[in-house]
Amino acid sequence: MLTLIKKSRAILGMNARNLSYIGPNNTKKAIDLANDKLRSKEVLRAAGIPVPEVYGIIRNRQELENFKWESLPKSFVLKPNRGMGGDGIKIIYGKKNDKWILSEGRTVGVEDFRSHIFNIFDGFYSLFGGEDIAFFEERIKINNSLKPYSFRGIPDIRVIVYNNVPVMAMLRLSTKESGGKANLHQGGIGVGIDIATGITTQAIQHDQITERTPDAKLKLSGIRVPYWKTILEIAIQCQKTSSLGYVGVDIAIDKEKGPVVLEINAHAGLSIQIANLAPLKYRLQKVQGLKIKNEAHAIRVAQDLFGGEIEQEIEEISGKQILGIIEDVSIRRRVDSRTEGSDESTLSKKDKANLQKERAKEYIGLRAKVDTGAGYSSIDKSLARELGYGDVIDEFDAVSKDILQRTGSQEERDTLLRDQFAKWGEGFSNVIIRSSHGVSYRLIIKMDLILSGIKINTPVTVIERSDLKFPVIIGRKSLGHFLVDPSKSLKELSKSAGS
Amino acid sequence: MSELVSFIMAQHVDINTVFLLLALPFIATLIAGFRQIIGIKSFGIYSPLVLTFAFWATDLKYGVAIFLVIFTTGTIARYILKKVRLLYMPRMAIVLTLISIAVLALITIGGHFQRYGLSSTSILPILIMIVLIEKFISAQVEKGFRTAAFLSLETLSISIAGYFVLSWGAFQRFVLEYPYYVFGLLVIDFLLGKWSGLRLSEYLRFRNVIKHVDVD
Question: Which residues lie closer than 8 Å to B30 by C-beta, 6 or more apart?
């Protein structure tokens, strides 16, 4: 009994949270800022913290009447400014014949939006009643590595920051039950995260410990949250900027932009303790009064004090992301594709629509082989064509063939090629391959790749490898930010084979 | 009866009013204790307090009957109106209309079956309950039916507990005998306000975390 009471003192309860942490540390002004999503977004952006873009604000009926619906992009999110707990949020995935497609697959028109926005005006979704305003915001595109774990909706990472130190974190996943929202009280899953490594430990749903996702039955421990260090840094910056002494920062990871702050909370919930099976009050007391010099120091303190549930990994020492042999990679399409417009007139209407749809997807996602034996990364010719480099490949083939037949010094040949590259714009070069068949030229294109959540700009050779299993090989020149662990992919593969 | 109470009554103040005003601080403290020590949530302090006094005014069984009718009508009305998209205020007006009709039907039926306690219910406690229903319904929207129903149940339980305290003879005599006890309540409220320990419900909620705490 005595130990029970002693142990329970390490836990942060509602009473202590309100009395000892929110009361003295969060001023009314700072709380008001946190509850006003638009204003806090503005303040964070001004401080250089990444936040989702705002497409439009509707403050009153008149603005609603005059709103230009066609100014909205195909995909966006509609939010009440003072909404709480994810209520009143509508996520729009696309547009079809003047109707918008919602996350549930339902379509809605302008009238539905109007009625929803009227409800927002009436304070239907704001926790304190009272009038509210509505705004449209950029829809975060879910990061590949977290995608399988989330049922619709965007997963986010909640980090509690106190005295500049990130003290506890959890990954929140939406489930079928939570209706695509990552809020725990609606049935979302909270997954504890080891603060040192960013690897998940165990998970809860409805405050009960759970092993796997309810829908896809995936294991919830051992997930590596990408951009972990950046996430911690952003959380610390948010505390400084918001001047909330005790703050819960919600960060989502966008496929292309990386970590983005969704919102800051002055009244962060307590379930995070169950997800981490760790007492929060104990941690808060540990960091209280510490003199934190800078962000790096804060992260070191957090890692030293609260990390270590999971073995320290090499990544921690080197700061590099670990890759397996087989990895998912996203390759960006050519930005200024010269094929645009030229052959479009010959396309049928349907093909045109398809082409536009394809173009809207800026990246192509594929499975790649990581090969430390290769110098350059390489991609298959047909894939390069799909990425929009068809004309470059054709011209390069013609020119290089022409050059090889010419007599003359190597230098002369190189200048010829260089002139050609200059015509195409930046990012093109070549490599000379000498093999038993003689000399040949290979085209090199600088491309944007996303590997394990990290964006790199790297030279890629274009070769014929349609006969091989992987259309993409990641070579040494692209692996500067990574370490390769051959056992990682084997584990993954055997896991997927087992299930 | 204390001198103070006798003095007040000599100024033509109704003894019922004196008792209720002296009992109110106790009920308020009770609700605060339920929240801070036990962890029963309820809709704030105001709803269970007002509901307690509404029950006192109507008699418990009739009060609960009216409350349940209002609650059920409100919930069903909301459920039906969810399918027809309407703006908030007109929708609430429809809900309130349906509630009024239901309550009127209830007390008429009560009168018909010689339940005069029901038919002679004054409008004030009924109005109080109708006002509260907006909170209950908006909670259903915000937190989902399960959570809201649970909160409503907790509020109802606290109010029923409050009602029993109010109608307990010993308590009534105590309050009128020692009206200065309210100053003692101030001290208790102050201590409750400084209480930062876990609530009883939190021992249950965090039981798994407690197991994992290392005491050094």
Answer: B158, B161, B162, B165
Output phi, psi for A261, to 5 deg: -85, 125
Chain center to CA of A118: 32
Q: Check residue A153 and give its pLDDT.
A: 78
Taking 70 as the pLDDT cut, the residues of chain B under it are 141-144, 215-216
| DSSP-based three-state secondary structure for B65 | helix
A117-121, A377-381, A489-493, B177-181 — which is least confidently predicted?
A489-493
- Short-list A428, A463, A433, CA closest to A445: A428
Q: Which domains does chain A have, with CATH numbers?
A: 10-52+140-314 (3.30.470.20), 53-139 (no CATH), 326-498 (2.40.70.10)
Between strands A165-173 and A377-380, the pairing is unpaired
Domain ranges in chain B are 3-211
Q: Is the pLDDT of residue A354 over 80?
A: no
Cα gap A143→A259, rounded to integer Å: 10
Question: Measured between alpha carbons, how far is A173 from A189 in angstroms, rounded to an integer?
Answer: 5
Partners of residue B209 in chain A, C-beta under 8 Å: 11, 273-274, 277-279
- Residues of B with CB below 8 A from A13's CB? 196-199, 202, 206
Mean pLDDT of A387-403: 83
Mutation target among B196, B200, B216 for the A interface, most CBs of A within 10 A: B196
* Interatomic CA distance for residues A88 and A71, integer angstroms: 22
Inter-chain touch B202–A14, beta carbons under 8 Å: yes
Quote the pLDDT of residue A130: 67
pLDDT at A334 over 60: yes
CA A54/CA A211 separation, integer angstroms: 37
Mean pLDDT of chain A: 80
Q: In this prediction, does ipTM exceed 0.90?
A: no
Residue B49 has a pLDDT of: 92
pLDDT of the residue at A165: 93
HEC profile of chain A: CHHHHHHHCCCCCHHHHHHHHHHHHCCHHHHHHHHCHHHHHHHHHHCCCCCCCEEEEECCHHHHHCCCHHHCCCCEEEEECCECCCCCCEEEEEEECCEEEECCCCEECHHHHHHHHHHHHCCCCECCCCCCCEEEECCCCECCCCHHHCCCCCCEEEEEEECCEEEEEEEEECCCCCCCCCCHHHCCEEEEECCCCCEEEEEEECCEEECECCCCCCECCCCECCCHHHHHHHHHHHHHHHCCCEEEEEEEEECCCEEEEEEEECCCCCCHHHHHCCCHHHHHHHHCCCCCCCHHHHHHHHHHHHCCCCCCCHHHHHCCEEECCEEEEEEECCCCCCCCCCCHHHCCHHHHHHHHHHHHCCEEEEEEEECCCCCCEEEEHHHHHHHHHHHHHHHHHHHHHHHHHCCCCHHHHHHHHHHHHHHHCCCEEEEEEEECCEEEEEEEEEEEEEECCEEEEEEEEEECCCCCCCCEEECHHHCCCEEECHHHHHHHHHHHHHC
Distance from CA of A173 to the nearest CA of B (A): 18
Q: Do A7 and B210 touch (CB under 8 A)?
A: yes
Amino acid in position B56: W
Residues of A with CB under 8 A from a CB of B: 3-4, 6-11, 13-16, 19-20, 84-85, 87, 112, 115, 118-119, 122-125, 127, 129, 185-186, 207, 209, 270, 273-274, 277-279, 282
Interval A149-198: pLDDT, tens? 887 778 899 999 999 999 999 999 888 777 767 777 778 889 999 998 88
